[in-house]
Amino acid sequence: MAVYTEVSDEALTAFLTAYEIGGLLSYKGIAEGVENTNFFLHTTAGSYILTLYEKRVREDDLPFFLNLMAHLARRGLACPQPVRNRDGAALGRLCGRPAVIVSFLDGVSVKHPGVHHCRALGGALARLHAAGSDFGMVRENNLSVGAWRGLFAQAGAQADSVAPGLAERIRGDLAVLEAGWPRGLPGGVIHADLFTDNVFFIGDDLSGLIDFYFACTDAFAYDLAICLNAWCFEADGRFHRDMAGALIAGYEAVRPLAPAEVAALPILCRGAALRFLLTRLVDWLNVPPGALVQPKDPREYDRRLSFHRTARDARDYGRAG
Ligand SMILES: Nc1ncnc2c1ncn2[C@@H]1O[C@H](COP(=O)(O)OP(=O)(O)OP(=O)(O)O)[C@@H](O)[C@H]1O
Ligand SMILES: N[C@@H](CCO)C(=O)O
Question: Which pTM was predicted?
Answer without folding.
Answer: 0.94
